Amino acid sequence: MSFSKKEIPRKATVLVGAQFGDEGKGKLVDYLSSKFDIVVRYQGGANAGHTICFDDKTVVLHLIPSGIFHENCVCVIGNGVVIDPDALMKEIEEVRALGYNIDGRLFISHNAHLIMPYHKSLDSASEESMGGMRIGTTGRGIGPSYVDKFSRIGIRIVDLLHPKTLEEKLRKNLEIKNTLLTKVYAKNELNVEEIVKHYCAFDRTIDSYVKNTQMYLNEQLRQGKSVLLEGAQGSLLDVDHGTYPFVTSSNPTAGGACTGSGVPPTYIGNVIGVAKAYMTRVGNGAFPTELNNEIGEKLRTIGHEYGATTGRARRCGWLDLVLLKYAVAINGITELALTKLDVLDQFDEIKVCTGYTVDGKVLKDFPTDHETLCKVVPQYRTFKGWKTSNSKAKSFSEMHANARAYIEFIEEFLETPITFISVSPKRDETVFR
Ligand code: GDP
Ligand code: IMO
Ligand code: MG
Predict the structure, then answer these.
(1) Is there a single domain that holds both residue 388 and residue 283?
(2) Relative to the alpha carbon of 280, which ligand is closest?
């Protein structure tokens, strides 16, 4: 028997944060969800905070995909996500309380790993011990949970369905973690019986959502269904491609969408990068265009730049095109969504970083070692502000000429089209090109 080369419909789209997270991915995914059959979260955990504003409601999702407010959309939490069962249950209740049906349209991968109480304790204990070198994590236990996954001692969703194995694994892990907490970090030990009881109870609540989501997604794609893969965090927080060690512990970049969901790369047709019209970062690490002055303060105030998960003030700065060019390259971004353009409405002048120098020498590419990145001097190009709102613009041509010039410059620099321009947190206030 002979087979000819397969024609695969490229009906999967990846959506990634192109900067340091909080680019407005939640708004974009919610906006796009009416056009997709399935939305999948593929990495990260409740460190994410994806804000969605519709019908005068503001909802922050941490684990459930941002397609949940579209009743025709199925939502999948993929194998690459690390799940805090308490946080997930709380979120399910919140969505239900808003009047949305979840049954039969939320599925959780049986291979996803769990966040355990010891992961959270170790996250904060490790941060404390790092002093000035701390990462500034969200404290949600993300790093320690991925450590266990790769050490092959992690506990997965599927283990909740086998109470005996779960209890055995938990007791073994707690023995090790309690030694670590008490002997290395001088912290109190965790109560083994309480944790065993608490986690064993999850099997009943979680049972109906658990699925072999890898095979489910493959079948749906084969049948011609469309899938949106929702990244959390941002490209520069990627453990491989980001500003290591000041990164998260997963792969938010486009490659992570395949490993974190089981959707093969052959199904992926395009990659949407979401970028703010300026930049923010929460937590520590290099940020070449950061503005530690009244301009940064103005961006923070107008943009309400406070973390959706931890409430921490976000560091603010001008848009960095050297960094974005790198993000476009490593993700294979085919189109960009530019968000929060309205935050720049009140500025006389707007700067954009178009190059880096180190010791007077121009750098060709974004440096991937943190030491060098801390030393770069950004080179700026200045644009005239538009000093008006573009919120009533229904098309690109209706936007102010100075705003259009700013957007067109970014497109040309990045050689990538900007197909969505967001000028408000609300679902409808998006200019689609
Ligand atoms: P995510 O993590 O990428 O989903 O982004 P976050 O939800 O953490 O942060 C983005 C914040 O900006 C949220 O408060 C959104 O409601 C808000 N937002 C999104 N798009 C826009 C926009 O175009 N203009 C304004 N002013 N706010 C926006
Ligand atoms: P969304 O999906 C912004 C940052 C933390 C810290 C680093 C590591 O809302 O864009 P972690 O808790 O992951 O070990 O922390 O990553 N961080 C985020 N910053 N948005 C996020 O998610 C983030 N998730 C993690 O502040 O610097
Ligand atoms: Mg966020």
Answers:
(1) yes
(2) 2
Q: Could you list the active site residues? A: 22, 50
Q: Indicate if 333 and 251 belong to the same structural domain.
A: yes
> Along the 433 residues of the chain, how does pLDDT read in single tens digits?
678 888 888 999 999 999 999 999 999 999 999 999 999 999 999 999 999 999 999 999 999 999 999 999 999 999 999 999 999 999 999 999 999 999 999 999 999 999 999 999 999 999 999 999 999 999 999 999 999 999 999 999 999 888 888 889 999 999 999 999 999 999 999 998 898 889 888 877 888 999 999 999 999 999 999 999 999 999 999 999 999 999 999 999 999 999 999 999 999 999 999 999 999 999 999 999 999 999 999 999 999 999 888 889 999 999 999 999 999 999 999 999 999 999 999 999 999 999 999 999 999 899 989 999 999 999 999 999 999 999 999 899 999 999 999 999 999 999 999 999 999 999 877 777 7
214 token code pair: 């890898």
Report whether 48 contacts 62 (CB < 8 A).
Answer: yes
Query: In the chain, count of helices (H) and strands (E)?
Result: 14, 20
- For the question of whether the overall pTM of this predicted structure is more than 0.90, the answer is yes
| H helix or E strand, kind and range, residue 39 | strand 38-41
Number of domains into which the chain is organized: 2
Structure tokens at 195: 């944790």
102 and 126 co-located in one domain? no
What's the domain range around 321?
A: 12-107+212-432
In a domain, 3, yes or no: no
- One domain, residues 183 and 319: no
Determine the atom of ligand 1 nearest the C-alpha atom of 429: 23
- CB of 390 closer than 6 angstroms to any ligand 2 atom: no
Distance 248 CA to ligand 2 centre (A): 6
